[in-house]
Amino acid sequence: MAKMSIAEALRSAIAEEMRRDERIFCIGEDIDIEGGFGGAFTVTLGLSKEFGHDRILDTPISEIMIAGAAVGAAMTGMRPIADVQYGDFLFCMMDQLVNQAAKMTYMSGGAVKVPMVMRAPIGATTRGAQHAQSLEGFFTKVPGLKVICPATAYDAKGMLKTAVRDDSPVLMFEHKLLYGSKGNRAEKDALSPIGEVPDEDYTIPFGEAVIRREGTDVTVVANLLMQYKALEAAKVLEAEGISVEVIDPRSLVPFDYAMVVKSIAKTSRLVIVEEDTKRNGWGAEVAATIAETAIYHLDAPIVRVATFDVPIPFAPIMENYVVPSAQRIADEIRALMKK
Amino acid sequence: MKIKPLPPLTEALGMYEKVRLIRRYEERIYYLFLEGVMPGTIHQSHGQEACAVGMLNHLGVEDYMTSTHRPAGHCLAKGVDLNAMMAEMFAKTTGCCKAYGGAMHTGDLAVGAVPAIAIVGGGMPLAVGIGLSCKMRKTQNVVVCFFGDGASNEGAFHESLNAASIWDLPVVFACENNLYGASTPVGKVMKVLNVADRAAAYGMPGMIVDGNDVFAVQVAADEAVARARGGGGPTLVELKTYRIGGHSRNDACGYRPKEEAAKWLKREPVKIARERILETYPKAAAQLDDCDQRVEAQLDAAIAFAKASPDPKPEDGLKHVYFGGN
Ligand SMILES: Cc1ncc(C[n+]2csc(CCOP(=O)(O)OP(=O)(O)O)c2C)c(N)n1
Ligand SMILES: [Mg+2]
To answer: How many angstroms separate the CA atoms of A107 and B135, rounded?
Structure first.
């Protein structure tokens, strides 16, 4: 076992996979220029030393090309890991991701595989509206894409390995405040959880949620940073006699409905917390599916706690208000317990 | 190119003062940022002051400018209120974007400064639209579109230049080639030597200009703007320049050779402007010093104004777009 940050766990997953399979390569902006950043959050820092610049490919600032080159290479025998510096730039790549990557296997009647990984940092960090969005809901909407969102070092490493070995395109969301980036790229007010990671090779199947905290009164499903905020809220509520179960879905497509249903069968209350905006989010999908399939377990309405339906404002005072806080989550749970 | 004589002394001093203002604005922001009193991140424009001032000095308020993630120089040169810019950095309601935008979206459309666009290349299609609008509304106005060397590798650059060219739009594309896109040296990501070489592909003139000499930039800008205003279509002006600071907040620039940085620092815009003014107007030293003092006083006042300004209320975050109350 080794203790590492999420950035380190991702880096070691990439290195181990690249050693194992020479079809794997990384492609992105500023990912390992000498003396540079190693990607916006240091994940690929230093990898070119071992793998060279042919496999750690620094690109021009050309997002359409990055995504499309990953698709094309993946279709023809390579296994690219592409990244964007901020998730917001996925919008520049939308055609390649949604019309090409997601549909190629289907349009070819299954003949063409697209084994690519697209990594994207998300989350509000006082950088204003164009460097802040949580984007899960845009992509869980797209048939043909798998969408994952690991929030611990263990999950980050194991799920990135699964993603690399998967024959379909996988979009991996990572949270800026969870990486544990160091030095000049350190994030103010970051949470940076350090986690235990096994030394031996392991993978984590998609579609398996985990219970981060057991409880009996209410089930909270929360991903990425919101999972940590939910755990914070759970701690506060414990002192008030409310027992909160916190589930981290880890992957959104596929989604582990079985674990959520099992949990609400025990708690009979469900809260979904996401940093993505509320309207048509993945939380809405989970709420709808639970309502369709398991509403009889519930004693009260499903509650969604999400970012209010506005762009992310610059001022921290406003940002902290529109993005869910531990306090807002706790307030919503208290109100739900009275229903 | 033959070196053109300087503008009259008052104008030259005015240009120097703006260059100096941008320099000191960025330097003071840098320290305020390090103190931790400013939220967010910063991408600073010191070293590139002459590009902003030279390109925009002769524009009117009714002309437009689009900017990037590195907008302070452009905005100060276009006439965005200094106090309002500083207040935006402090996330105050008196800010030019009322604390909604932040450093990367600085601007004020009332003076033709389109709120800056932090998506690399993202401002370029907008500049086409603004040029189109100027033409359709039969105004005589032009738009200066700033972007970096890095942005010229985005699809948006190519689509925008082509469209502006076929429609003879009043757009001046101003590329600040500071030799790097973030940590990436331009030679690694472009086979042509100059961004201006790409102009030929779109049938428009390309100009290469010393972007650290505010007076040289203004000469080039005059020519490109006159062409745009006169219905002659767009120009791609490449301004060769260099960042004094890092790409963003605390960047130690480990990817830039020390000798390269030292060489450029010897030719930095404040120094060049000062030297050129003194060459033509040898008795102007005291006036130049007055400019420096005025700048400092203005900045002191702006920082005091920003600090004393009110914070937004949390619920203000729900204004300005349809929210729906959910
Ligand atoms: C579409 C997009 N891709 C990447 C980025 C991240 N990024 C911000 S600035 C920058 C470098 C831009 O280089 P250049 O255009 O030369 O402008 P400079 O920073 O040198 O002023 C990058 C890669 C971004 N903001 N938008
Ligand atoms: Mg540049």
So the answer is: 44
Q: Is residue B1 part of a domain?
A: no
Q: Would you mind telling me the total number of residues written for chain B in this entry?
A: 326
**pLDDT score at B2:** 58
* Per-residue pLDDT at A266 exceeds 80: yes
| pTM exceeding the 0.90 threshold for the entire prediction | yes
Tell me, what DSSP letter sits at residue B132?
Answer: H
Asked whether residue B40 carries a pLDDT value surpassing 60, the answer given is: yes
Question: Which residues form ligand 1's pocket by a CB distance below 6 Å?
Answer: A 29, 61, 63, 85, 89, 92; B 69-70, 118-120, 147-151, 178, 180-182, 247
Q: Is residue B130 part of a domain?
A: yes
Q: How many structural domains does chain B have?
A: 1
Ligand 1 atom closest to Cα of B154? 1
Phi, psi of A271 (to 5 degrees): -125, 135
Domain assignment present for residue B123? The answer is: yes
Mutation pick from B67, B69, B85, B120 vs chain A, by most beta carbons of A within 10 Å, is B120
Q: Domain of B197?
A: 9-318
Q: What is the pLDDT of residue A189?
A: 85
* Secondary structure class of A182 (helix, strand, coil): coil
What are the phi and psi torsion angles at A234 (to 5°)?
-60, -35
CATH architecture of A210-337: 3-Layer(aba) Sandwich (3.40)
Give domain limits for chain A: 2-197, 210-337
Query: Residue A303 is which amino acid?
Result: V
A92 CA closest ligand 1 atom index: 1
Interface ipTM: 0.97
Q: How is domain A2-197 classified at the CATH fold level?
A: Rossmann fold (3.40.50)
Is residue A197 within 8 A of residue A157, CB to CB? The reply is yes
Assess if residue B180 is contained within a domain.
Answer: yes
* A175 given a catalytic annotation: no
CATH code (residue B214): 3.40.50.970
Element (H, E) at A197: strand A195-197
- Six token digits for residue A72: 């094309």
Contact residues, chain A, for B255 at CB < 8 Å: 33-36
Q: Is the separation of the CB atoms in A155 and A131 below 8 Å?
A: no
Q: Which amino acid is at A136?
A: E
Instruction: Report the separation in Å between the CA atom of A263 and the middle of ligand 2, taken as the mean of its atom positions.
Output: 52
Beta pairing, strands A146-148 & A251-253: antiparallel
